[in-house]
Amino acid sequence: MWARIWSVLSQHFIAAGSHHEEKVAMYAIDSLRQLGMKYLERAELNKFTFQNDILKPFVILMRNSHSEKIRGLIVDCIVQVGLHKSYQTIEI
User: Fold this and answer.
1) Where are the beta strands (DSSP E) in the chain?
2) Helix 68-91 crosses helix 22-40 at what angle (to 10 degrees)?
3) H-helix or E-strand containing 18?
4) pLDDT tens-digit map of 44-70
5) b/e 56-85 (16+ beta carbons within 10 angstroms → b)
């Protein structure tokens, strides 16, 4: 169920994160970061790959963006998500 929902949502985030208006793209990428952090807080069963799928839009946006500012934001978001996940693991 989540995979089908995410397939639609991720395409929306990619489209919005690729928007020609930089503020719109940045807002979409930050929203993707927030959503990613929320979903990565949840424990995942071994047979699911949703946690990996949540990060794929960042990869696509990084590949497609020519804006240094947008690419920097994507790197910052990935670092924040990674740090959040590692701090969460330490707390457990």
Assistant:
1) none
2) 10
3) none
4) 555 566 778 888 999 999 999 999 999
5) ebbeebeeebeeeebeebbeebbeebeebe
